[in-house]
Amino acid sequence: MRRWIELEAAAKIKAPFGDSRKTHAPPSTDPRPKPRSRRRRSGKKSGGQRGHAGHRLETVAKPDHTVEHAVTTCPCGTDLRRQPSIEVVKHQVFDLPKIRLEVTEHRCERKICPACQRVSTAQAPAFARQPTQYGPRLAGWAVYLTMGHFVPVARTCELFQTLTRHRPSQGWVLACQKRVSRNLDGFMSRITALLRKAQAVCCDETGLRFGGQRHWLHVCCTALFTLLLVSRHRGSEGTKALGILGTVRTAIHDNYPSYFTFDCAHGLCNAHHQRELVYIHEELGQRWAKRMIRVLLAGKELKERYHPIGKRIPQQLINNIKRRYRAALEAGFEINAPPPQRQPGQRGRIKRGKARNLLERLRDREDAALHFLEDPAVPWENNQAERDLRMAKVQQKVSGGFRTEAGAQIFARCRSYLDTMRKQKHDLMDGIVEAMAGHAWMPQESLAESREDTAA
To answer: What is the reported pTM?
Structure first.
């Protein structure tokens, strides 16, 4: 009980500094009680809505097995074994059979040439070069579990033992990951070329620490493609290694200064702005922030109303949003005085405060903040990049992160492959097996272009 009271007291002390809804802090650091959701009420009841078709397990016409259950006796005691059946009531049970590994023996003939006496041996398949080895489907499961669902390597081996009574070594699982990554050179080149042709890409980065050094995981992505890269640099040098920015028309990001060094149009993430505005309104009590939130959400509603049906937002409505945007900024500058003049001998940056910093950013980057109104391909926020990076944090939480840079690069390449297949609705297991065999799946450019146009 005392520990709970101490936690509550600590939460009250911590609350004025904000939470994940108002800052960039992770939700795990939120004070109690948990912050309120930013979602606005829809007026609908929870659960399935009226007219929703629903989903259920449907019967199949040809079941794999059939078990007959006969009626032998009536409750009154009469023998019914000779009576004809008037109807059959069907109950279908969907279940997994007991899993066991199937062993396939590949017999390769050897013959002696009668002319030159040379011994010739038939060639075994590429996946059966050793006297005994696990097949590509099991290897695909190993990669899928560790890279797709972040099951630790040791637990993956334990899971195989539980299901199949065979326990592969941890080295074999790591070797499967390396083999898939090694065979993705063509895919990485292809995805880079497709992203360079995209009208707009989402960019972000997150920190990784291993080998006693700080590293950064960079991402460039769209609704159809994902490209991840590990670099020792957070700024423009790390982003440049991706080879995307500078060739696309628009980059959407979180206002990190290094992104503005690339020659392209820029769009800012308004979800970041919304979090900061919520903090300024609720913690600092400044009303202009609430007005600005309404302006940004009104612009989002216009985008959702016009762009999905292939129409551009009327210029009159855009001008109205810009007028309200500037009016909110003006109200904010009235109550946030400019920073004091630098004193003789004073060093470092002059403190402005969070509200003043945000006001100046929204004023100086107005075109980038409202770029989503002009261009249908530019999203309102940068959430796509954050979703693609989130899996690295899940990996760190579940498996404890990485030990070497090579392991982190393998993770980045495999996740780029899996995320892109998932976005384009390609079977992940088939794609992994194809990559294991050296024939990695490639997205079709024509299909990608048509889907990009639809999304825009």
So the answer is: 0.82
